[in-house]
Design a protein that fits this description.
488 residues; alpha/beta; Alkaline Phosphatase, subunit A; Arylsulfatase, C-terminal domain; 3 domains; 16 helices; globular; binds calcium ion
């Protein structure tokens, strides 16, 4: 029942009460309520207009645009220090908003990270560890899209959903999501998927009602590989000549000795198999890097078009924009491809939040606080004025965007990876502002790594077996155990 109907019923109850007091006949009551109905319709109409006026910019709930890329490493943008890749539109977002310099995922694999983004929960709480498991109906009701819908938002989803194979089509007002990994090119088509998703985003925006807030999640497939295809990172045909004459710098840790220093079960894992297809020699490295960065520039172009559409449709000033990736990516470092492991290339992601309503004097341009993928849902809900469910494990990042200091912000956090254990070594660990403790939990005996990120940002020297660091190691072991127990 709508609000005006509820008020109408309440009004009739009050009239009944008065009639009771004055012992009026039922017929009189009927005549009175009928006579009042046209008047009430007029009152309702005026109330709706007044509500609309009260929701004018400044008071209306903000729109939310969530842009998630797939396997995009943190340093693959101009604004995060890459001097080669062309990302002018994402750089502009960073210039208008807050760039988080230390953003990470709590599990570095698509399905688990996406479930964490939607729910604000760790893998050990949402329990989605593989590609087939969907949210239960009850768990879905606690995700940010479901909560926004319950509070009157118009919902759109475009692209790779990533959480199970059953798509929640009916939960959204506009659904262009797909299960699995998708295809960069539909059979017989030359229209690149990234471009198609940009078109869909603009179509959604053109259909919004300015009086109803919206939340649009655009979940790009790019720059994820089309695994096993003859060309695994095929760009938009318009970008084929991009970076053609560029030689990408080869990271130091691609050297053979860094690969050899790793545990045997890492050296024979899926990351190495994919490395053999992509980075096994210098020519392959350049070819893969060129295509990977072409895909990123393709995303950037669509983000530029989406932002332009927001401006043209006069929606930009009340739309919060969040840009991030579901995990990082090894570009051959440590002799690896893809992600999964707890090293920085894999767990670190780009993160930008733009609140266009803030004056630049009230906005922090860069935040160094450690932000996690589980913080996104509570951040979105915070902007929408909706309390996070008690099951949420992340925290709102809003105070960092607004130049304030969040009280008791995390100084360390727990990492876990348990997916596809037959091909990927299971790991857990703790990342502090200075240290990283990695524990390969299925190894017999247990294998541990300890890095001093302050002195060794590329994790070249494992200190776990050095006596001088035994106290630090013990402290981090204890912290791993403690966090592991409290995060269920
Ligand atoms: Ca991914």
């Amino acid at each position: 029942m709508y609000t005006d109907e509820l008020v109408f019923v309440a009004l009739i109850r009050v009239i009944s009460e008065i009639c009771g007091q004055f012992k009026l006949r039922a017929a009189t009551l009927y005549e009175l309520s009928s006579a009042l109905r046209p008047a009430w319709i007029l009152i309702s109409f005026l109330l709706v207009l007044a509500a609309g006026a009260a929701d004018l910019p400044g008071r209306q709930k903000p729109n939310i645009l969530v842009l998630v890329t797939d396997d995009q490493r943190w340093d693959s943008l101009g604004c995060t220090g890459n001097r080669i890749v062309q990302s002018p539109n994402i750089d502009r977002l960073a210039a208008r908003g807050t760039l988080f310099r230390n953003a990470f995922v709590t599990t570095s694999i698509c399905c688990v990270s996406r479930a964490s983004i939607f729910s604000g929960q760790y893998e050990r709480r949402h329990k989605i560890v593989d590609f087939n498991t969907p949210f239960t109906p009850d768990a879905f009701r606690k995700t940010y899209p479901a909560l926004l819908k319950q509070h009157g938002y118009r919902l759109g989803f475009i692209g790779k959903y990533g959480v199970g194979n059953a798509m929640p089509t009916n939960e959204f007002d506009y659904w262009r999501g797909f299960p699995g990994q998708g295809q960069y090119f539909a059979r017989g088509e030359t229209n690149h998927l990234t471009h198609k998703m940009g078109e869909q985003a603009i179509a959604f925006l053109e259909g919004v009602n300015p009086l109803q807030p919206f939340c649009l999640s655009v979940s790009f497939k790019a720059p994820h590989a089309q695994d096993g295809a003859p060309r695994e990172f095929p760009p938009d045909p318009r970008d084929e000549s991009l970076y053609a004459n560029v030689t990408f710098p080869v990271p130091r840790t691609t050297r053979e000795d860094f690969f050899r220093a790793q545990p045997e079960f890492v050296k024979t894992s899926e990351g190495r198999r994919r490395w053999q297809r992509r980075f096994a020699d210098l020519e392959m490295f350049q070819k893969t890097a060129r295509d990977y960065f072409r895909l990123i520039t393709g995303i950037d172009r669509e983000i530029g078009r989406i932002m332009q559409a927001l401006t043209t449709l006069r929606l930009a000033e009340n739309t919060i924009v969040i840009f991030t990736s579901d995990n990082g990516f090894f570009l051959g470092e440590r002799g690896m491809a893809d992600k999964w492991l707890m090293h920085e290339e894999s767990i670190r992601v780009p993160l930008i939040i733009v609140d266009p309503r803030l004056k630049s004097s009230n906005r922090r341009k860069e935040a160094n606080a450690m932000a996690l993928n589980i913080d996104l849902a509570p951040t979105i809900l915070d902007y929408s004025g909706i309390p996070s469910p008690p099951t949420t494990q992340g925290r709102s990042l809003r105070s960092w965007v607004e130049g304030k200091r969040a009280v008791n912000w995390r100084k360390d956090w727990f990492y876990e990876h348990h997916s596809v254990p037959d091909k990927i070594p299971q790991s857990e660990g703790v990342r502090t502002e200075r240290w990283k403790y990695i524990r390969y939990i299925a190894a017999q005996p247990i294998v541990e790594e300890l890095y001093d990120l302050k002195r060794d940002s590329c994790e070249e020297r494992n200190l776990a077996n050095q006596r001088a660091y035994s106290r630090t190691l013990n402290r981090l072991r204890a912290r791993w155990k403690e966090l592991r127990n409290v995060l269920e």
